[in-house]
Amino acid sequence: MTSTNDTTKSATNGNLPMAMDLNIDNITKNVISFCSQGRDPRMKFIFERLITHIHDFARETRLSTDEWRTGLDWLEACGQICTKNRKELITVSDIFGLSALVDEIDHPKPPGATEGSILGPFHSTVAEEKANGDQLFHDPNGEPLFVICTVKDTHGNPIPDARIHVWEADSNGEYDVEKSGQNRPDGRGILHSNDQGEFHFDAIIPVPYPILCDGPVGKFLEVSGRHQYRPAHMHFMFEKKGFDQLVTALYFRSSKYCDSDAVFGVKTSLVVDIQDMDIGTVTKYSRPHIKKLLKYEFVLASDTETNMLRDKHSIAALKTTGREAILAGHVPIKP
Q: Sheet containing 188-192: which strands, arranged edge to edge?
């Protein structure tokens, strides 16, 4: 039973400290104690680090009340503008570089594996199954592009029946989910690799486009002095049992903004060149009407390879911070 003379413990919350007389020096430790009552050790670890960094940010910047209120208003506006097809908070994560960072942390790649890129706000599970050779886009103003890809493991073996989501914007830089009158998916599809690990489809050459800037994201970019453009690109997501999911994109070298992508998604290994169609490809795939060709070889990391790297990197990260934690499910938890 807690003594009435013990002012360091709460009379109503057992061994928790009293939530009274908190100040700059003691508030962080006390809030962490109150947020560590759950049973999930991973969430305890996340809450501890989140509160620590948020409080340290306020202390280091000497955050004013007006600035705190402005930040909250901005976050509120982000939530208010969100709809089923307008995912402002994903874009917020993108422009802060958080999306790219989390992908790097959670999906480390062994040598030779294809690097990841951001998912972006326009991926949709509402997509049609496509056969190899099908047309991905029905944009009459887009320049036709024939795409031939393979998917292999890190040892060079073809991966058959991988499930591949592909999506891209139209010739105006808009995705189908942005268009109010769009009745069916377009510019996206789900394909499967054949026994040789190959998949191919008809698309259009993508163009650079601005991210949506008529809301809070646009205001942030303006205040921070940044442009709002993404380079021309095509999205891919690979799923296959036994392999780590790969979310990536191919970026077109001829496009502007490859070196200043507004959402930090470009990697050198993902920058590609468009080729002229050769007679062999035209004949083999019966594509006399298409003049441009894109080829790329994707390489997937196995679950085993990825998990080994997750453990290795997590242990190294914990050593640099000096934090006490253990690994469970390849991520740190609070012991």
A: 188-192, 163-167, 233-239, 246-252, 271-272
